[in-house]
# Entry
Amino acid sequence: MFLGVDGGGTKTAFVLADERGRVLAAHAEGSLYHPEVGLPEVLATLRRGAAQVARAGGILPEAFAGAWVGLPAFGEDSRVQAELAALPARALPGVATGCGNDLECSHAGALGGGDGISLVAGTGSMTWGTWHGRSVRCGGWGEVFGDEGSAYWIAREGLALFSRMSDGRAERGPFYDLMRARTGLESDLDLSGRVVNDGARSAVAAWAVAVHDAALAGDAAARAILRRAAGELADLVRATCRLLDVPPGATVIASTSGSVLGEDGLVLQDLRHLLAPAHAGGRGAIELRAPMMAPVLGAVALAARAARRELSADAVATLAQGRFVVA
# Structure
């Protein structure tokens, strides 16, 4: 049995599956984003989640044949990298473990192990691409000066828009009233205190929904934020193709995942337009596809690889059809 763990900035999914690709149990825990929760809490969350999903599957954690953990911000700070990389093995002693950036889970799940680009735009944003033995990462520089097109970036732009609407630097549109209604502010300036006092990355990113809802309500300024977000994400995909040296005329499969790129969202619509053949400029085609399976299921496949028991094609197909509820 194999444990896949897809850690995120907001929540972490744990899934247990067997060598035939059958999903046996699923569980959710909090964030594994170590800059926010700290390394001790990452370790505690891994142990807690593994114990819970093992209990739900009717086994003990030491019975896992392999485990793979996707960690947000993995590889982004050399000062803590060695300690961070050691946490999965510490959480699951005696189990064959592997770990990497959480985007590797997304790539494995989205493309079923094939070449292409996995574009994730959730709390943060980045790509992971592979092409004929090469692999590259693009974006994901964090919320302070990167993560363009992500929920955090959209929310930050939205909060800035609210401030301009409030003090007269921008014309007030539906977004202003929507934010007032959802926050229950007595004074507009109270928003500053709320963001400062509860300025966690995930808490700020949650305001991206308000920007999207305002755009649907006809707010031109909010809609412009979402168009800029799509442009930033398109730049990520194009840059990844260049870094991979994809030859002209080749077709690259790019999967899309994350809260910003939901099928019913405006950003995905804009992204499809920006990456359409008419805008390719002779650089080849980029074909956007929905992921083959969830990132946490990709982590299951990577867990089997970590145990040197690669899942068969039939097992991967079964895994991709797996139904589970992370609760």
About this structure: The two ends are 20 Å apart (CA to CA). The mean pLDDT is 90. The beta strands are 2-7, 12-17, 23-29, 66-71, 96-101, 116-121, 125-131, 134-139, 251-257, 285-289. The first strand starts at residue 2 and ends at 7.
